[in-house]
Amino acid sequence: MDDRQPVVVAGVRTPQGREGGVYADVKSERLSVPLVNELLARTGIDPTDVDDVAWGCAKQVKEHSNNMGRIIALCSELGEGVPGRTIDRLCASSAQAVMDASNAVRAGQRDVVVAGGVEHMTRVERDCGVDAYDGIAAQYDARDLRMGQTAEEVAERHDISRERQDAYGARSQQRACEATEAGRFDEEVVPIDTGDGVIEEDEGLRPGTTAAKIAGLPPAFREDGSVTAANAAQVSDGAAAVMVTSRAYAEEHDLEVLAAVGAHEVVGVDPEVMGVGPVPAVRQLWERTGHDAEDYDLVELNEAFASQTLYCQDELGFDDEVFNVNGGAIAIGHPLGASGARLPVSLVHELRRRGGGLGLSTMCVGYGQGAAIEFRVE
After folding, report:
1. Which of 119, 251, 359, 370 is the least crowded, having the fewest Cβ atoms under 10 Å away?
2. Where are the domains of the chain?
3. In this structure, which topology does domain 262-377 adopt according to CATH?
4. Could you report the per-residue pLDDT of 218-233, keeping only the tens digit for each?
5. Which residues are CB-contacts of 160 (< 8 A; sequence separation ≥ 6)?
6. What is the Cα–Cα distance from 319 to 297, expressed in whole angstroms?
7. In 200-339, beta strands by DSSP E
8. How far apart are the C-alpha atoms of 276 and 7, rounded to whole Å?
């Protein structure tokens, strides 16, 4: 057995809140700190054993601006002896936190790392866009790099119809609502006390959604477009986190190993079709591992938009029976800096519920990137 293999020994997330919804008056650290404390409670790890906090956050301005990783360490049961840092790879910020934690453990530099992320999209907005950079403006029309426009471009270039997108949007809601009703998210979700009540479920769920009901919604980004509020990820607030240790540490401290962290990959793509990022990311991962679509027992691909999700599923050949089985960001939400950790949390818990196997977490990333990570539940 590989003593330096990075493993996940706990993984949790908040219920996701809608923009302007239940978390509107709840600051980002109040979404994050309960997760860190829950990781410590579930594992029994002494806070002094934690080597670092790696925390993803895409919009590092306003209340996100003072190194969220360190703020969370200081505000949580970790305390002042645990350092923290904040990572920005846009939508894959917390995926990068998990990758970095895994790399540090694999290299023997760290034994225990808290890796996660948060985004409060209600309270925090950037004060400049990509068009503020002269080099970008010289190469692209900034309007074409807006996320909704890139989704429309994917749909147009790859002939992803409005009907398919609506059917997929309804599927996401139906699967997420069914999973919630069946209690399949209970193990991964940490209830959040807002001061006005305790939030236990994702706020964006819409029971009873069908393709027919959402077919009449107007396009959100182009007058003649196909991307709508119901076939795109919800703008959300939330956090997610995992505890990554070496296998040797887990065995020495009698910790239950939820999953081994496998190979991972990041790539760059044309930012005008940023949603295609999972395709080259996963294909490069397959070159590294020798795996293919049929090797995965479950796949979580972040549903930034139905158009890019369908394109990636088509191109990579993932069977519907293993693909986003409990819904995805269209229903659950997409708090940018948190989603890269939310996907592995949901993936690992569902793999364990099904008896184990090999899983894949993958996502597109703003301004033309893709990320992918494998996990194995024994």
Report:
1. 251
2. 262-377
3. Peroxisomal Thiolase; Chain A, domain 1 (3.40.47)
4. 999 999 999 999 999 9
5. 154, 226, 306, 307, 310, 311
6. 10
7. 236-246, 259-268, 298-301
8. 29
